[in-house]
Design brief:
- With about 475 residues, the protein is an all-alpha fold.
- It has 25 helices and no strands.
- The protein has helices spanning about 5-15, 15-25, 30-45, 50-70, 75-95, 100-120, 125-135, 145-150, 155-165, 170-190, 195-200, 210-220, 225-235, 245-260, 260-275, 280-295, 300-310, 320-325, 335-345, 350-355, 365-385, 385-400, 410-420, 425-440, 445-460.
């Protein structure tokens, strides 16, 4: 990639999308087409603006038509078509067009195989192949029939290997994009945010972009480091150039909720609602706003936002499905358990421990609340490395959960699997990962199943 293209690519990752497009607008080579398409894809994925969708889809179809007529089909052409197909698979998923998304994933998969067979030394295709392997390898079991129907296979372990192999590539653009995808997979699929976060921390300031800072913030929240996430998210919101990431305001709300600073959380959530034009995370945002008012002692306003949340947004994202269940409840959640959860999630462990120590679980009024208390205590002890105690509490959670459609037991199984995996006991790890998959009714089934399946895939590859 030429220096001017590297500059345009960096502008795209910094969400200076008009500048990135302008740098390549008079060219029709594969690299220019890729950069223009990436700019369109990022804008649609971030803004979710329906008004842009038809115009950018037309751009996409025109680019595909142009590339499909190229002769001969160079590796760059095959790679670019595969990349465009994959970009639009994510867009179609975001906009709820699942059939179109599946079709584009299948087409991208076929093009990658074709490129690998014809040009085995062409390294860039490993990036596309790596991402596809991670995606397909973590598909929950209930969707395996779709992969079989479309004749696709994936392996998270193989995908990680392919992406890792590109990190030292002399092409800085290829190395950077492969690294970002790898860190995303490590943190959100393999449940290892710490090494991904540590790797990003080694990047010099001049290498970071809005997207890399945003990923750092997401990983910090995932790693229960809300204070560190706050630094990344504030850095993003202070950057005036390029497209605004409105989802950063949503994450700021999460961080302040973890801290117990409810007025700051409310301001961030309200700013998200004001600027966001999509339909995802609306139910969860209204629910979190209600929770902020509830924990701040304003029950009347909490119920107002509960009622508004019931008719807002859609139930596509898992956070929204969970929120929808909570929004339909006739009572607000136990404030003590909510505070313990958020303090633990944010890494405010002393606060969580003080709340736990001051609580008698037998005085909690319902079986669900008693089960959740044990689960929350297990999560805290897991975070502070009181491993044997948390192991026993996870087992108690499983016993107390019984066959109820709560996510406490399946996630307890998942966490036990991780504990045994990290101790080198693959046999017991396998038992608990499979047990996590066995639960059929809970609101986090897709994500827990995906993580358990990915972990099992890793264990099989290591044998």
């Amino acid at each position: 990639m030429q220096p001017e293209d590297q500059s345009a690519y960096r502008k795209a990752l910094n969400l200076q999308l008009d500048e990135a497009r302008l740098a390549v607008h008079q060219r029709n080579d594969p690299e220019a087409i890729y950069l223009a398409s990436l700019s369109d894809a990022l804008e649609l994925l971030i803004t979710e603006e329906d008004a842009l969708f038809d115009r950018y889809e037309s751009n996409y179809e025109n680019r595909l038509h142009f590339l499909s007529k190229a002769s001969p089909k160079t590796p760059e052409t095959l790679f670019t078509i595969a990349e465009l197909r994959l970009q639009w698979a994510f867009i179609y998923l975001k906009f709820g067009q699942e059939f179109d998304a599946a079709w584009n994933i299948r087409q991208s998969y076929s093009l990658v195989q074709d490129c690998k067979n014809k040009y085995p030394r062409f390294l860039p295709v490993k990036k596309t192949a790596g991402l596809l392997n991670v995606m397909l390898g973590s598909v929950p079991d209930k969707y395996e029939w779709v992969l079989n129907l479309l004749a696709m296979r994936g392996s998270v372990e193989k995908g990680v290997q392919e992406l890792t192999s590109l990190q030292a590539n002399t092409n800085p653009v290829l190395a950077m994009e492969a690294s970002l995808i790898l860190y995303l997979a490590q943190g959100l699929i393999l449940q290892k945010p710490q090494p991904a976060l540590a790797a990003l921390a080694q990047w010099p300031d001049e290498k970071h972009t809005k997207l890399s800072l945003f990923l750092s913030g997401v990983l910090a929240i995932k790693n229960a480091e809300s204070e560190k996430a706050l630094e990344f998210l504030n850095a993003i919101t202070s950057m005036t150039e390029g497209l605004k990431i409105t989802y950063a305001d949503y994450l700021l709300g999460e961080v302040y909720l973890h801290k117990g600073e409810y007025q700051s959380a409310l301001a961030a959530y309200q700013n998200f609602l004001k600027l966001y034009s999509g339909e995802n995370f609306l139910k969860d945002t209204y629910y979190k706003i209600a929770i902020c008012h509830w924990l701040a002692g304003d029950e009347r306003t909490a119920w107002e936002f509960i009622k508004e949340g019931r008719t807002s947004g859609r139930e596509y994202a898992e956070a929204d499905r969970h929120a929808a269940r909570e929004l339909s409840a006739k009572e607000l959640p136990n404030p003590l358990l909510v505070k313990i959860r958020y303090a633990t999630d944010g890494g405010y462990y002393n606060t969580a421990e003080q709340l736990i120590d001051a609580t008698n679980p037998e005085e909690l009024p319902t079986e669900k609340e008693q089960t959740e208390f044990i689960y929350r205590k297990a999560r805290l002890y897991n975070k502070v490395n009181r491993i044997e105690e948390c192991r026993q509490l996870y087992l108690k959670t499983i016993s107390m959960n019984k066959d109820n459609p709560w996510y406490y037991a399946p996630n307890a199984c998942l966490q036990l699997g991780y504990l045994y995996r990290d101790e080198g006991d693959d046999k017991q790890a396998t038992v608990y990962f499979k047990k996590a998959l066995s639960y059929t009714r809970h609101e986090y089934k897709n994500s827990i199943d995906s993580k358990a399946k990915s972990a099992l895939d890793q264990l099989r590859k290591e044998k």
